[in-house]
Amino acid sequence: MISRKFIFTSYGMSFFSLFTFFYCLYSNSNNLYQYLFIIPLIYSIANITFTVFLIHKETYGLNIIFYIAYVLIFIRYVLTPFFIIFSGKFISWGWGPNPLKGSMLFAEILMSLELIIIYCTQYFSIKYYSKRYRNIFNNQAKSFTKNNCDHLLVLSVYALFSGTIVLCFQPSLLSIGSLIKNAITNDPTIFTGNNNLYGAFTILSDTFKKVIVIILFILLQKSYIKNKGHLYYFHLFWGISIILLSVLLNMGYNRLRIVFALVLGLYFTRYILGKIPLTFYVVLSMGLIIPVILISINKFSYALSLSTSPVKSVIATMSGQFQDYFSGPRLVGQMIDMKKYGSFNINISTFINDFTGSLPFISNYVNQENRINYYFNIFNGMSNQSLIAPILGIGYVYFPAFPFLFSIIFEHYVIKLDFLMTRSNKISYKYIYAYMGYVCSMCMGYSTQNIYAQFMNAFIPLIILLKLNDVIFKARMGENKGKFLIGMNNTKNN
To answer: CA-CA distance, 404 to 409, in Å (whole number)?
Structure first.
């Protein structure tokens, strides 16, 4: 059963969506968004229905990834329409040509249908994995997840290998100074390379950052268990240090990754220690919000140069960018116009390039100018490929009869990874599942190639590494019962 806190929060979200519905209906002064109110109205109905169905459903537990995805859905379908109307009172925001009015209405209808399909996908996925979860509990004695393999050795070896290679050939990828500079300036030239192996170095650096955080959390858990819960504040300080390191390592990416690093760090610290004082939540959150705001102000400095009200200009610019970050109706409408009126030769080779173009080594032989995101940026007059084509728009371009295919796939994986995270009792698996679950939940803002690239370049290599280690460990367990094996904890610590 879902918690009362979730039920009350869900009802609160639906209430705010009704407020947004009236706000869009009566405060809109832009003819382009004449029917924008449809989206929050559908959300309020769909969200209440989804919550009522969940109330009467015994679930597998619903973990952090489900809740992150739930919040992101709210941001895209409620907060984004709200801020579109809000920012429209101060500035005119958006790259490229405005969609035709008919295309915008079609985009709003498609988004409303997509929302209903997303909730249906999540509900039936929760139903399926809840049944599997009950079966696992009934056969828990047979589950391999109860063995002592904690992956500490194999992850340490990988970290040593990957860190050494990157530091020798592309040290800027692991330089904290470069990461911070990239976050502040948003200068993509900081992390560019001309050699064919640069993609491999990028994969090694990205997985190295994740592995380091995982190792530190495993060590924290082992130490806390060894001390039988004593030295709480020492271990809390240790956990907070890991969180801050994780935030630093994610500085070179977008601000949502920074926020996620904080949320995930707090989750695992609480998972290991059992509790975190509210004061630490507040201090860490405020400590993160301030640099994010400063980074935003620096990025939007162009909006301040001629402004008589800098604070208002920054707020208006940031709120106007919700469409760009969360695939608003304007971007979906542009994709519709691009398919109808753009003179691009989009075919099966484009579809293949969208996936193979993100793979290391293979990408060197792929025509990067025959990909959807490239065409989308060209259509909007952008030469630096900074705009992200919305997944719903990509679905419409490839499958106009059913443009929701990619949304269904990624939202199903949100629940699947959330379930796998709940089922596992290993920090290593939990962290990797959580990270990839977040990436899938960002189908609210990422493109298909963003998500697929993370699957292939980070998630799959690490999962293969851990699974191979499990197979070797399990085989040796059968041959060497009672012995201490590679990657095995001391049994008194379990």
So the answer is: 9
Cα angle value 443/449/451 (rounded, 5°): 45
Most distant pair of Cα atoms in the chain: their distance: 75
Q: Give the C-alpha distances (Å, rounded to integers) separating 324 from 37, 51, 96.
A: 19, 28, 12
Which residues lie below 8 Å from residue 413, measured CB to CB, with a gap of 6+? 436, 437, 440
Residues 97, 5: Cα–Cα separation, whole Å: 43
Give the side-chain half-sphere CA count within 13 A for 421: 25
Which residues are registered as beta bridge partners of 149? 488
Nearest Cα neighbor of 151 from 465, 481, 479, 431 is 465
> What does the pLDDT average to over 285-312?
65
Quote the CA–CA distance of 59 and 129 in Å, as a whole number. 8
Residue 251 has pLDDT above 90, yes or no: no
Structure token digits, residue 285? 């959150």
Q: Which of 266, 13, 265 is nearest to 115 (CA)?
A: 13
Look up residue 399 and give its DSSP letter: -
The helix/strand/coil state of 488 is strand
Residue 82, both tokens? 């709200």
User: Could you tell me if 417 and 436 are in contact, meaning their C-beta atoms sit under 8 angstroms apart?
Assistant: yes
- Phi first, then psi: what are they for 434, rounded to 5°? -65, -45
- Which helix H or strand E contains 359, and what residues bound it? none
Q: What is the DSSP string of 436-467?
A: HHHHHHGGGT--HHHHHHHIIIIIHHHHHHHH
How many Å apart are CA 493 and CA 224, to the nearest integer? 10
Q: Return the C-alpha torsion angle 381, 386, 390, 393, nearest 10.
A: 30
pLDDT of residue 77: 97
Residue 156 burial (CB < 10 Å; 0-12/13-18/19+)? Answer: middle
pLDDT in tens, 403-431: 999 999 999 999 999 999 999 989 999 99
Q: What letter represents residue 251's amino acid?
A: M
Write b or e for each residue in 33-44: b if 16 or more Cβ atoms lie within 10 A of its Cβ, otherwise e: bebbbbbbbbbb
**CA atoms within 13 Å, Cβ hemisphere of 229:** 4
Task: Take residue 481 and report the two structure tokens written for it.
Answer: 């019962």
Say if CB 255 and CB 326 are below 8 A apart. no
Amino acid at 86: F
Separation in Å, CA 388 to CA 157, 335, 447, 455: 36, 11, 6, 18
Q: State the pTM of this model.
A: 0.88
Element (H, E) at 302: none
Residue type, 471: V
Q: Are 47 and 10 in contact (CB under 8 A)?
A: yes
Q: Phi first, then psi: what are they for 149, rounded to 5°? A: -70, 110
**How many C-beta atoms lie closer than 10 Å to residue 102's C-beta?**
12
Burial classification of residue 317, based on how many CB atoms lie within 10 Å of its CB (0-12 exposed, 13-18 middle, 19 or more buried): buried
